[in-house]
């Protein structure tokens, strides 16, 4: 069974990967959740979420991405990978 914090992330990742929310909406929820949530997941989950945080930070919603940026499709792929890799806690 997942911890409450991992459940929050998984719910958010599912909403995004299933196209129920946009990348901009995902970004607006994910970044503050990651930065300000006081409950920390396991170190394995934290590492995966940190990698995704960096991906979200490099997301460009406004036109073609620069070489160091990613677009919505790529962000969705990376979010799906993170969702699949997150351990149950």
Account of the 3D structure:
The protein has 89 residues and is mainly alpha-helical. The protein has one domain (4-85): Four Helix Bundle (Hemerythrin (Met), subunit A) (Up-down Bundle), CATH 1.20.120. The chain contains four helices and no strands. The chain has helices at 4-17, 23-36, 43-57, 72-85.
Major sheet description: none
| Average pLDDT number | 94
Q: Per CATH, which architecture?
A: Up-down Bundle
Number of strands: 0
Q: What is the strand content?
A: under 5%
Q: Treating each run of at least 4 consecutive H or I residues as one helix, how many helices?
A: 4
CATH class: Mainly Alpha
Order of helices and strands: HHHH
Gap from first CA to last CA: 6 Å
Q: What Rg do the Cα atoms give? A: 13 Å
Structural class: mainly alpha
Whole-number count of domains: 1
- Residue ranges: pLDDT <50 for 5 or more in a row? none
| CATH evolutionary superfamily | Colicin D
- Which percent bin holds the helix content? 55-70%
CATH topology: Four Helix Bundle (Hemerythrin (Met), subunit A)
Give the overall shape, derived from the CA principal axes.
Answer: globular
Short description:
Helix content is 64%, strand content 0%. It has 89 residues and is mainly alpha-helical. It has a single domain (4-85), classed as Four Helix Bundle (Hemerythrin (Met), subunit A) (Up-down Bundle).
Element layout with pairings:
Layout lengths: L3 H14 L5 H14 L6 H15 L14 H14 L4
What structural keywords apply?
4 helices
């Amino acid at each position: 069974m997942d911890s409450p914090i991992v459940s929050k992330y998984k719910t958010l990742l599912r909403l995004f990967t299933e196209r129920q929310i946009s990348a901009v909406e995902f970004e607006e929820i994910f970044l503050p959740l990651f930065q300000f949530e006081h409950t920390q997941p396991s170190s394995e989950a934290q590492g995966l979420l940190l990698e995704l945080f960096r991906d979200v930070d490099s997301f460009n919603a406004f036109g073609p991405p620069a070489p160091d940026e990613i677009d919505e499709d790529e962000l969705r792929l990376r979010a799906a990978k993170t969702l699949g890799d997150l351990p149950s806690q």
